[in-house]
Amino acid sequence: MPPRLLLRLHRVGAIAMTYFAIFYVIVNSAVYPLIAGKTRAAQEAFGLQISSLGAQFAWLLPLPIRPDTPAGYLQWRGYGVFAIVFGAWALLSACGAVRRDEDRGLVEVWLSTGLSRSRLLMTRTAAFASLSAAVVVVAGFAGWLGCMIAGSPAEVGGLVGESAALWGLTLSCFGIGALVAQIAPDFRAAAAYGATVLVVLFVIDSIGRSSITRSPLTDVSVFFLYNRSNAFAPGGVFDPAATIALVLVAVITTTIAAVAHTRRDLGSGLIRLRSPHQAPIYEAARNPVLGIPVLRGLWARRIGSLLWIAGVAAGAAAVVDIIDLTANFFANTPSLAPYLRHLAGDVHTVLLALIWFSVAQGVLAILAITYVARWAADDSSGVLELQLAEPVPRVGVLAERAGELLLLVVVIAFAAAAVILALAPAQGLHVDVGRLLVATALLVPFALTFAALGALLAGWRPRAAVVVLSTVAAVSYLVFQLGPLLKWPAWADNLSVFQLYGTPLLTSVFAGGLIAMLCIVVVGFAAAGVALARRDIAT
Amino acid sequence: MSSAIVTHALSKDYGSGRGLFDLDLEVVEGEVFGFLGPNGAGKTTTIRLLMGLIHASAGTASIFGLDCDRDSVAVKREVGYLPGELPQFGGMRGSEVVAYLGGMRGTINHPRIKELAERFQLDLGRRFREYSRGNKQKLGLVLAFMHDPRLLILDEPTSGLDPLNQQTFHQLVGEVKSTGATVFLSSHVLSEVEETCSRVGIVRDGRLVSDISMEKVHEMRFHEVVVEFAGDVPEEAVRAAPGVEDVVVDGHRLTCKVRGGFDAFLAAIRGSNVLDMVSREPSLESIFLTYYRT
Questions:
Q1: CATH 3.30.70.100, chain B: domain bounds
Q2: What pTM does this model have?
Q3: Residue A337 pLDDT > 70, yes or no?
Q4: Do B152 and B79 form a contact (C-beta atoms < 8 A)?
């Protein structure tokens, strides 16, 4: 296969990961003095508190090393999180390369050109390896630059070692994904099985990290091998043997995957269970939900919708669970006190507002982007063409799309609020129910703001919709995070949709922000209706 | 007879000479109209213009007197549509796809759906992703026919169907025609057009080349014949036979085109020792290309 095509097949993930890595690394390194304080004493006090907090979060991230320095903080906060994010990217890329392209019929076409199956998998792996190496290098450079801006240059040798470990982890996760994808019946199952395997490996490492006695099982986890290196932090180490082991895992799993690929039928998994014989059905489904606008779309995607609802509710429960712990951290960290001082209310409520509603905003923005991605895909796949072959106006299809997302956002937001209200008393949190419901309700126009922008993009330029909307969301979040730290003027802060949401759990509703969001929703969907009506479909 | 479809100077210009230009067409109610042409000639563009999926650069199109663009919702109440390629519905079962799109239409004719699925032997209990290409096409046909529309617009309806199901389709078209419905279909298959259509329009390079009856189509029809002889090739006799064209002899092999009946050709080779003989019906596209080239 031509190298250009190979690289092109992974370009969306690589671009998104590059954006994310640069943004995340810069936020966690360049602004370190603003978070930790500018004096050495303040940074040492901050480091002590992060060490204490890090011990509590050892199940999630490795223990911090020298968090009183930007590089040490970035090692913990940045490269600790990268293990999860890069692992997930590699897994999805592998499942996509093996099964999604197969489901699309692309693999069949490539194999028909005389390319062998093993060579196909190996070339795809090589292409991903090249791109992931580039992303890891860019992330490392951004970290080095961030530390430089923070006034504490990082060691280049440590940076190279940590980048090598991250690359090894990414490759090994790709190999595991490629292997698991050989067994699964299709892309979705492959992603689910692969995610399960990676979660198990992560938990094995997590248990080993947070327990007194380490199980021998821990050594088999790729996350354990990755965490053997923490070379970016001052005084950290690089474990070349563990990194080589990660690359070996990648080579072995990819080789087994290539062998498995040659032994299975295209379009099905290596292990294929015979489906029980069923008499053919010649009747249309009599499910009344399929006849109800909005609900029929949610029913068609009921499993995904339920996962969103359950996942966000679980996230709300986890946030409530850590509020007390985080409150103690903030109470004992002088440099962080200013962040809470200007907000009214007790520290628990303030943290609930800051943590939960930040998480909820991020999650709902991602939900809106995934919906916009589906709208754009419906256009290119021909689903929209078939929908419009029925006697429904284009604006009706748009309204149904918006209604479906609106309903799902309402259910997700209020289910999470119900979880918070149910669990708060056990954690000693006193939540103002009225304010919580108002804050939850305001998440709806927040999510619809992204949806309206996305609908406009999908109605106008469907192919560019996801990339542009993701960029808008990322920039919006960046403005929200950096604006207060860098003391940008209010008008600049208000360019962020996250800023327009305000802090309704703590203060009164930001009327200007709400009006602005509603205006974007109305104008965005109206313009999307016009764009969709004027555009040619299925060309 | 009133008109089902009328277009006046209908054009869709994609630039670089691609698209559809100045299409004037009328299909009367109750007619089965075949829309033919090579790939990229403008067949699907015409169908999408009729369905209001794309907007015309110039000209007008109407169905049952309703403007295809302005009144597209009203138009689609009367139309059953089969796209050139069915989209992916992933994990949805065939029965759910039918109910989902039937729900969008507002009515689901359960007995009709059952009858269609049984005739095509389409198991609606299976997931869409498990369907073969032929089964996907059958599902598309069920979706197009299930509400007994006054007009059927079908883009290559027998593509991917086996001969038995093609036959079922032809019967179905005959039945809806007998109830007064109109059918507008694009096709590459001559036998299908011969069996189902009463008139054909031929489009080439975005322009309607001809709008002709089936009698004319029959005149255009020919077979490509290859005969392998044991001994000498009776070349002179074959060349002299009426209806035989483009005779080429290569050793003991003779290839030619036979237009109309085979009687004259068979008489010409009678007495020769024939080892093998193959007669192939070329694609409709190549028949028309040959016809319009000459």
A1: 221-293
A2: 0.80
A3: no
A4: yes
Q: State the span(s) of chain B assigned CATH 3.40.50.300.
A: 3-211
Take residue A527 and report the two structure tokens written for it: 């313009």
Among chain A residues, CA nearest to B144: A389
Strand partners, B280: B224
Residues 270-289 of A with CB under 8 A from B: 278, 280-287
DSSP string, B61-128: EEETTEETTTTHHHHHHSEEEE-SSPPP-TT-BHHHHHHHHHHHHT---HHHHHHHHHHHT--TTSBG
Task: Look at A391 and B113 and tell me if their CB atoms are within 8 Å.
Answer: no
Closest-CA residue in chain B for A537?
A: B53
Q: In this predicted model, what pLDDT tens digit does every residue of B147-176 receive, in sequence order?
A: 999 999 999 999 999 989 999 999 999 999
ipTM value: 0.82
- Asked if A492 reaches chain B (Cβ–Cβ under 8 Å), the answer is no
State how far the Cα of B75 lies from the Cα of B77, in Å rounded to an integer: 5
| Residue A464 near chain B (CB below 8 Å) | no
Contacts of A73 (CB under 8 A, 6+ apart): A28, A29, A32, A36, A47, A50, A64, A67
Report d(CA A19, CA A139) in Å as an integer. Answer: 9
In chain A, what residues touch B19 (CB-CB under 8 Å)?
A: none
Residues 156-185 of chain B whose Cβ lies under 8 A from any Cβ of chain A: none
Structure tokens at A377: 């895909």
Query: What spatial distance separates the first Cα and last Cα of chain A, rounded to whole Å?
Result: 28
CA gap A420, A28 in Å, rounded: 29
List of chain B residues whose C-beta atoms are within 8 Å of the C-beta of residue A102: none
Q: Which CATH superfamily is domain B3-211 in?
A: P-loop containing nucleotide triphosphate hydrolases (3.40.50.300)
**What would you measure as the largest C-alpha separation in chain B, in angstroms?**
70
Of B72, B83, B118, the CB nearest to A382: B83
Q: Is the pLDDT of residue A343 over 70?
A: no
Which positions 42-81 of B are in contact with A (Cβ < 8 Å)? 48, 51-55, 72-74, 76-77, 79, 81
The full length of chain A comes to: 539
Q: Which residue of B has its CA nearest to A186?
A: B129
Q: Which fold has domain B221-293?
A: Alpha-Beta Plaits (3.30.70)
> What are A78-118's pLDDT values in tens digits?
999 899 999 999 999 999 998 888 887 888 888 888 889 99
Chain A contact for B85 (CB, 8 A cutoff): yes
C-alpha distance from A472 to closest chain B C-alpha (Å): 29
Asked if B237 and B264 count as a contact pair (C-beta separation under 8 A), the reply is: no
Of B128, B130, B121, nearest to A272 (Cα)?
A: B130
Q: Note whether B121 contacts A390, CB cutoff 8 Å.
A: no
> What are the pLDDT digits (tens) for A418-461?
999 999 988 888 888 999 999 999 999 999 999 999 999 998 88
Residue A98 CA neighbour count, 13 Å, CB half: 40
Which of A282, A378, A381 to mutate against chain B (most B CBs within 10 Å)?
A282
Quick: pLDDT tens for A241-263.
Answer: 999 999 999 999 999 999 999 99
